[in-house]
Give the backbone structure.
Amino acid sequence: MTGSSPTSAPGDPYYTLPNEWDFAGERLALLGEAYDPDSIALAQRLGVGAGWRCLEAGAGGGSFARWLCGAALPGGRVLAVDADPRHLMDLPDRGGEVAQLDLVADELPEGAFDFVHTRFVLLHIARRHLVLERLARALAPGGFLVLEEGDGLGVLDEMPGAFGEVWRAFARSTEAAGANQSWARNLPTELEALGLVDVHAEAQIPMFRGGSPMARMWSLTWDQVHDSLVAHGVSHAVIATAQAELGDEQQWFYVPPAVRAWARAPRVPITQ
């Protein structure tokens, strides 16, 4: 995930949850535990397997890239890129490649991959359209681009209690740093505009119990962005209440939908 400061000025092309935070490794591992099963299931539906050339853009904690190594290697290629690859250093031992790369400032190999994937990255980058075009150009003819992004889709305002109050402040804080919490709903149109074909999309509202990996991940997120939450109108007491709720196994929660959109490059190369 492209990373700098969680309080970057609007328009800064930086990810809003940087990897250098002390507990970022734990948070990213929990995020992978929560979301990897659906990411893997979609990749398997698309046929990802031995010999595929794969790019994980904004690889973060690297859990999905590790799965790709097991699926595509030997015989294929797995390249995981991130502006801060500190959590990816075990991938070469699995046969993967790691590159320190800023998705906004740096180029990607063009026409080189059968499968390009990113998860919860583009909505946090102010210059997301530039990155999306770059990801599309990285596809080999016939290759798949898979994007997983969050989108409020009307759910955000309905989330109750302290957890909902904190989540809405979190959304405001990310948008102040250049994120767009309503961008993902337009992904099918974006993919078609890039010349991709066989466009598909789905949305899923995650529901989870307190004390689960998803709950722990959100509690850590509130720790990471605590100062930004306070700056956007949430008291320390409300944040503490929300975190206590997240630790209660008798409570259930939901968060805004995860939008998954995927498409295939035509059999002739994409030109821009």
Notes: The helical segments are 24-45, 63-72, 128-137, 161-176, 187-193, 213-224, 226-231, 236-246. The chain is about 35% helix and 20% strand.
